[in-house]
Amino acid sequence: MIGRLERSVDAVVDAAGRLGVGDRRFPFMARSLSGVFRGSATLVDDGENAKKLETALFIVEELLRLGADRWDALIAIGGGSLLDTAGFAASIYKRGVDYVNVPTTLLAMVDASIGGKTGVDHGRVKNVIGSFHQPRLVLIDPSLAEALDARNYASGLAEVVKYGITLDAGLFSFLESSAPLLLSRSREALWRVVARSAELKARVVEEDEREEAGRRVVLNFGHTVGHAVEGASNFSLTHGEAVAVGMKCELEMGVKLGVTDPAALERYLALCRSLGLCGEPRVNPSAAAELVFADKKRRGGFISIPLVKSVGSWELAELGVDEVRREVIRCLSTR
């Protein structure tokens, strides 16, 4: 859904602050958006198949139809694909208008809604058209994730695992010990992992907003291979399912290079199985390997890939594109 604010973004931020939510840039405002909208909302398809330039231009047309000016704000309510697309539309409409993200899936809560990376896919290439455009506000109600189907719920947990294995050993240990609670959708456990994931991502983005200082690249762990797998599946795999495969392959690369402690790979595989993320991706390994060349982190014949050293720590590696392609084929052929 796309709508316009009844009140200014600053007024909504102030209201969130009065709820005692702490950090004003990424507040958690529970349940109610009453009084926020005016005018008619617009329904927009969600999902990866709708994450394309045509959808972004449809949103622009709707903004024109509604008479939105540069002082209005766009509100996007939905999953990660919709938030990425709506954010991109906001970034190009009249050279940029404010927008607010209201994520309704677990994956969007912990990843897509935060950080200002907006964009759409083109063909089988993920996020190849896009911009950096920060939301003025992110409203997260983790209880919305309780209504997700099992597949999309597990998909969101993959991104939580990513934060733990790269940045926070304590979070990873909590996931290991609390997998049954999370799968049963314990509200306390769910809110804890959503809050910690959002905090970790926000901290990294603050340090390296436009991915220029070599810090934000850690958020791409599992995504070099994951995006290739997702594209090779023609987006029949969810983003989280593809990233789960990507993390396994990139951990195996790290072990082979002597960067990754083999124990980190073993712990990841055990957690992956506990959370139901270790399915067999039915993708052509060669097709996935070919898509590696489109990775946004590629410079010439090399790709910058964050590799895990041990649970909670990482380092950046520059790997040859051909080497990565060979490893993708090997990994996907031996699952």
What descriptive keywords fit this protein?
10 strands, three-stranded antiparallel β-sheet, 48% helix, Rossmann fold, five-stranded mixed β-sheet, lyase, 12 helices, 2 domains, alpha+beta, Dehydroquinate synthase-like, alpha domain, 335 residues, globular
Descriptive notes:
- It contains twelve helices and ten strands.
- The strands form three sheets. The protein has a five-stranded mixed beta sheet, sandwiched between helices. It has a three-stranded antiparallel beta sheet with strand order 8-9-10.
- Helix content is 48%, strand content 17%.
- Helix 4 (106-112) packs parallel to helix 7, helix 5 runs parallel beside helix 9 and helix 9 (239-257) packs across helix 12.
- The longest helix is centred in the middle third of the chain and has 21 residues, at 187-207.
- It is of the alpha+beta class and 335 residues long.
- The protein has two domains: 2-144, Rossmann fold, CATH 3.40.50.1970; 150-333, Up-down Bundle (Dehydroquinate synthase-like, alpha domain), CATH 1.20.1090.10.
- The N and C termini lie far apart (39 Å).
- The model is unreliable at 18-32 (pLDDT under 50).
- Its cofactor is NAD(+); Co(2+).
- Keywords: Cobalt, Lyase, Metal-binding, NAD, Nucleotide-binding, Zinc.
- GO terms for molecular function: 3-dehydroquinate synthase activity; metal ion binding; nucleotide binding.
Summarize the structure.
With 335 residues, this protein is an alpha+beta fold. It has 12 helices and 10 strands. The chain has helices at residues 9-18, 53-66, 80-92, 106-112, 150-167, 169-183, 187-207, 223-232, 239-257, 262-274, 285-291, 321-333; strands at 2-5, 37-42, 73-78, 98-103, 117-122, 125-132, 137-138, 298-299, 302-310, 313-320.
